[in-house]
Amino acid sequence: MRKLLPILFLLILEHSVIYASFPIIESNQFTQIESLDEGDKKLTKKQKLAWFLVGLIGGLTGVVIALIAWLISEKKKGQFKFALLGFGVYLIIIGIITFFVFGDVPFGLNEIDNIFILG
User: What pTM did the predictor assign?
Assistant: First the structure.
């Protein structure tokens, strides 16, 4: 206990003193650059519909294409969102067709009780 107190004191004292090895000059010369053309970043209705159709018709490939286009493009935002929405509608349509036409539960959802193998 006697050695612990000086060790803690030295650790606290040592970490509270910081020296800079370079000269520090305080200057508040910051410039802020703002983009005023926010309208260019939004998708038009035709572009939203086009990306929705890319996700709907292209499936998972369309979503990957939209993701690549979203990562490359600095102007437009929302391509991936609408392609993903189209892919979700694609999955719902395929599920409904599979259930009503073939009479089968889609995507293996009827085997949900078999996940507990040891139960």
Answer: 0.57
CA distance 76 to 66: 11
Instruction: Give the number of residues written for the chain.
Output: 119
The CA-atom distances, in angstroms, between 30 and each of 22, 23, 27, 33 are: 21, 19, 8, 10
43 touches 83 (CB < 8 A): no
Contact by Cβ (8 Å): 82, 69: no
Between CA 73 and CA 72, with CA 91 as vertex, the angle to 5 degrees is 10
Tokens representing 77 are 């935002």
Q: 10-residue block means of pLDDT along the chain (119 residues)? A: 70 62 68 59 87 92 89 78 93 86 75 63
For 44, residues 6+ apart whose C-beta sits below 8 A from its C-beta are: none
Q: For residue 28, what are the contacts with CB-CB under 8 A and spacing of at least 6?
A: none
Query: Reduced to 3 states, what is the DSSP secondary structure of residue 43?
Result: coil
